[in-house]
Amino acid sequence: MRDDLFNSHNDIANFRFDESVVEVFDDMVKRSVPGYDSMIQMVGLVARMYGKDNTNYYDLGSSTGAITLAISLNNDHKNNKFIAIDNSPDMVKKCQQNLSKKIDNLEVICSDINEITIQNASIVVLNLTLQFVDVSKRSALLKKIYDGLNPGGVLIISEKIHFDDNENQEQITQLHLNFKRANGYSELEIANKRQAIENVLISENKKTHIDRLKQCGFKETSCYFQCLNFASFLSVK
Length: 237
Description:
This protein is an alpha/beta fold. Helices cover 43% and strands 21% of the residues. It has a single domain (1-237), classed as Vaccinia Virus protein VP39 (Rossmann fold, 3-Layer(aba) Sandwich), CATH 3.40.50. It has a 7-stranded mixed beta sheet, sandwiched between helices. α2 (36-50) packs across α3 (66-74). The chain is globular.
């Protein structure tokens, strides 16, 4: 379904992953996030390289299940469990509908990812998820993920990032806005979406992400994909 949630002058509440968003989410994210399809594809390729037999694969903030599906389609390992977690009941329902007939050994859970346990993991993914977690809770979440990964396991994080240099930030912001315009969003829709999400999505710069991951214990972190102000990080335990 096409995303037209923000095309009116009505008061805009803070962004929520409710039923109205779930119905248009796939269209919204593809038209709003530069490089989204490549981002998903790369997660699948990373999982193919680092997945192990007899381990769990976690998709934290799984939304409609695109990441879990990409991992499954690229998985040639044995006896793996796919665990998709989201705190939105509407998202969980949609994810279950999308994946239940496509993935064996799937568990879709409605829960706060800050409260769940990570164990026996070779792959953990936070795809456009950490940016919605309270900044004060991000280090604890990443440390919990680190502790639950097996040696050689990986954490993949994709996020909207910002830049410390004002000129660079303005340039990339304008390119991102032009990307949305090219994908059919009106000026009203762009303004309304920004108003709804600005106090919900808290971005950080690339260095902050890499430094935090190092502090959590990851021996190696690289920014392996970036398109405008969206970047993907690969961290190896």
